[in-house]
User: Which sequence fits this backbone?
């Protein structure tokens, strides 16, 4: 529909030119101008959007690779340290044990 709009305005322009209707010729001229501006803007945005999409995709892939590397480092070094700290807390008696304080008379 984007390109058909330009073709329709060109048909209107030549129709007005053949009929010597200068009022509509001016309107059709602006229609052609705006239709081609729309097509030009679409081309520019589509090229720019493709570049932005490619850059964003590369950035996300790089983040994913570095996040995976960071996760493996944390799970290897820090993860083993945290598991040893947590396991020593539970065996050292720091956890409160429930007491049986009920007595029956």
Assistant:
């Amino acid at each position: 529909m984007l390109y058909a709009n330009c073709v329709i305005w060109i048909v209107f322009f030549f129709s007005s030119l053949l009929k010597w209707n200068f009022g509509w010729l001016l309107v059709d001229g602006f229609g052609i101008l705006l239709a081609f501006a729309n097509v030009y803007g679409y081309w520019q945005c589509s090229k720019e959007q493709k570049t932005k999409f490619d850059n964003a995709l590369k950035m996300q892939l790089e983040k994913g690779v570095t996040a995976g590397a960071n996760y493996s480092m944390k799970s290897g070094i820090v993860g083993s340290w945290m598991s040893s700290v947590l396991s020593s807390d539970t065996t050292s008696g720091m956890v409160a044990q429930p007491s049986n304080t009920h007595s029956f008379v």
Summary: The mean pLDDT is 75. The longest helix spans residues 22-91. The radius of gyration is 37 Å. The chain has one domain: 2-79.
